[in-house]
């Protein structure tokens, strides 16, 4: 519940963001158990503190993850960008930023091949048949008269279980039903031992266990024959296979799943042990809560450390920025000068190309002037010669020359026309006679025409 609410004028509860985020985080941690989540690694970062920060994503979504140094140092490999992995994590919230994240406790590579797919198929099949139903589970006896163990005599898990039972319940007899826990045909042998323990009725509870290993090492506990033998057992069965992060089909078929063989031994111990276990669980829960609070503070410290910039670094950034501005200022001042010079050079080049050649023009004009003078002189000479020729011709054809040869021109004084025929001469008709040295007005007294034109 959210505590210490403030009252608003409207009477509604008002709470700070930090209180809301703390309440959401608490609810997430209580509501969501540890779960395996698969995805592709992106944005992987290892902080100076040793914590891992990354995201896992698929085609449709992504989730931020944090794996603190205490767990990251025991990881079998370091994820890289693009790796497909599976993480066992608790859903939490990073309260200062209100971001949902996965608090990773274990990491492994995705899939483990076809065995993992077969594991999922068999689990789904048996679950659909109701083999894992909660109503089939039986409670463990509070005071067992005997405890049976199905495992290998050479298994280290057997020694752990026997040591734990001897320490916690030395008065309870223990019977071992030996069977190999790894290899071909092991599942049938383990199932036969479960059935033998039920047939003999020597014990009140049965532990099926072995130590940790890869999925291939634990595959005998993922076979259908063993799962059905455990589910059909009249004795309550506790499965303690592998480590805490290992899950097998036998774990789901058993009445109780213990994280380790030692934990299985603790679960079947008398009531005093149960009480001690409850106390241990409360202590462990308190330790986990304290550890997560410490981890959240460490994460917050890493986040604040990334935001913190030292004065020297800030001054270095500012100096770099000032140098960049100075370079840009010099470039901005020099650019107009360069552009003006380039423009002037271009205009000067165009002007040089289009500048008239005065000397060549003068020379051309001088040649034209000389040509014009020569042409004018030649034309004048030609015209002068022509005039002389025409004058000579005119002199030859001039009426004055004709008159100088002794001829005379008779002009009718009344009409002003030249008389050409003898019959035009009439007595007492006034005439003007033009001679070589002058003219005279005459009046004809008489006209005697001649019959011949000869002089």
From TrEMBL:
Q: Which InterPro entries match?
A: Exonuc_VII_L (IPR003753), Exonuc_VII_lsu_C (IPR020579), OB-fold_nuc-bd_dom (IPR025824)
Q: Which organism is it from?
A: Caballeronia insecticola
Q: Name one GO biological process term.
A: DNA catabolic process
Tell me its EC number(s), please: 3.1.11.6
Keyword match Hydrolase: yes
Localization in the cell: Cytoplasm
What EC class is this?
hydrolase
Keywords of this entry? Cytoplasm, Exonuclease, Hydrolase, Nuclease
Q: How does it assemble?
A: Heterooligomer composed of large and small subunits.
Q: Which residues form the Exonuclease VII large subunit C-terminal domain?
A: 131-442
Job of this protein: Bidirectionally degrades single-stranded DNA into large acid-insoluble oligonucleotides, which are then degraded further into small acid-soluble oligonucleotides.
Q: Which Pfam family is one of this chain's hits?
A: tRNA_anti_2
- Every OB-fold nucleic acid binding domain range: 16-107
Identify this protein by name.
Answer: Exodeoxyribonuclease 7 large subunit
Establish whether keyword Phosphoprotein is in the entry: no
Entry similarity comment: Belongs to the XseA family.
Any one Gene Ontology MF annotation carried by this entry is: exodeoxyribonuclease VII activity
Question: Catalyses which reaction?
Answer: Exonucleolytic cleavage in either 5'- to 3'- or 3'- to 5'-direction to yield nucleoside 5'-phosphates
**Which Gene Ontology cellular-component terms appear in the entry?**
cytoplasm; exodeoxyribonuclease VII complex
């Amino acid at each position: 519940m959210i505590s210490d609410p403030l009252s608003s004028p409207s009477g509604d509860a008002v709470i700070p963001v930090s209180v809301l985020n703390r309440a959401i985080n608490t609810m997430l941690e209580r509501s969501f158990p540890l779960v395996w989540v698969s995805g592709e690694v992106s944005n992987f970062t290892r902080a100076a503190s040793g914590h891992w920060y990354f995201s896992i994503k698929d085609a449709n979504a992504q989730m931020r993850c944090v794996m603190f140094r205490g767990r990251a140092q025991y990881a079998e490999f370091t994820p890289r960008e693009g790796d497909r992995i599976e993480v066992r994590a608790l859903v939490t919230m990073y309260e200062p930023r209100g971001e949902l994240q996965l608090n990773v406790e274990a990491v492994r590579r995705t899939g483990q091949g076809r065995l993992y797919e077969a594991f999922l198929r068999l689990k789904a099949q048996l679950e659909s048949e109701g083999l894992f139903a909660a109503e089939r589970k039986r409670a463990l006896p509070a005071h067992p008269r005997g405890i049976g163990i199905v495992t290998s005599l050479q298994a280290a898990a057997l020694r752990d279980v026997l040591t734990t039972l001897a320490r916690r319940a030395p008065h309870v007899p223990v019977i071992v039903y030996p069977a190999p826990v790894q290899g071909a045909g092991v599942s049938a042998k383990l199932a036969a031992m479960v059935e033998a323990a039920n047939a003999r009725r020597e014990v009140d509870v049965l532990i099926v266990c072995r130590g940790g290993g890869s999925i291939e090492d634990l595959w005998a506990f993922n076979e259908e024959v063993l799962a059905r033998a455990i589910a059909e057992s009249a004795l309550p069965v506790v499965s303690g296979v592998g480590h805490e992060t290992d899950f097998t089909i036998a774990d789901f078929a058993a009445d109780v799943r213990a994280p380790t063989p030692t934990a299985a031994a603790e679960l079947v111990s008398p009531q005093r042990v149960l009480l001690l276990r409850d106390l241990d669980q409360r202590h462990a829960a308190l330790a986990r809560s304290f550890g997560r609070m410490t981890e959240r503070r460490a994460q917050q410290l890493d986040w604040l450390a990334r935001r913190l910039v030292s004065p020297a670094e800030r001054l270095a950034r500012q100096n770099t920025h000032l140098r960049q501005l100075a370079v840009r200022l010099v470039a901005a001042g020099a650019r107009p000068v360069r552009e003006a010079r380039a423009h002037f050079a271009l205009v000067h080049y165009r002007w040089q190309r289009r500048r008239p050649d005065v000397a060549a023009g003068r020379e051309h004009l001088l040649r034209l002037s000389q040509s014009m003078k020569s042409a004018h002189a030649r034309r004048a000479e030609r015209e002068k010669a022509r005039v002389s020729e025409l004058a000579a011709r005119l002199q030859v054809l001039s009426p004055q020359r004709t008159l100088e040869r002794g001829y005379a021109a008779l002009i009718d004084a009344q009409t002003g026309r030249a008389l050409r025929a003898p019959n035009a001469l009439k007595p007492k008709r006034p005439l003007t006679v033009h001679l070589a040295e002058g003219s005279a007005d005459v009046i004809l007294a008489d006209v005697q025409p001649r019959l011949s034109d000869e002089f």
